[in-house]
Design goal:
Layout: H1 3-14, E1 27-32, E2 37-41, H2 54-64, E3 70-76, H3 87-96, E4 101-105, E5 111-115, H4 116-119
Parallel strand pairs: 3-4
Antiparallel strand pairs: 1-2, 1-3, 4-5
Amino acid sequence: MDKKELINMAIEARKNAYVPYSNFPVGAAVLMDSGKIYTGCNVESASYGATNCAERTAIFKAVSEGERKILAIAIVGDLNSITFPCGICRQVFLEFAREMKIIVATSETNYKEYTLDEIIPFSFAPSDLNDSSNGGK
């Protein structure tokens, strides 16, 4: 995986963000195990609950095309400081990957890379639903 390519694709996707309320555009590029990359941007709504984050837009596009396993995602929000994914997006990551790289960046030369366990410790994942040792919780 070329991290710079993934970051640059997220930067490009950021340009399509629809953010009339927050004025905070975010772009994401997700690499699936097929090798395909899907991009997404955040899309806001006057009914704030109907807003969708860039990360989920990219992942939902991939899933709608039959993809199921994430290898990596690049996220670019503020171009002056690193933007991390929200809790809902982190939970969606868990649905489609346990071992993935999360790249948060402002540019192709200014980025940080994390694992899912680093950004969402003590998570509740699909595997927890089938774990009889914790009472099915």
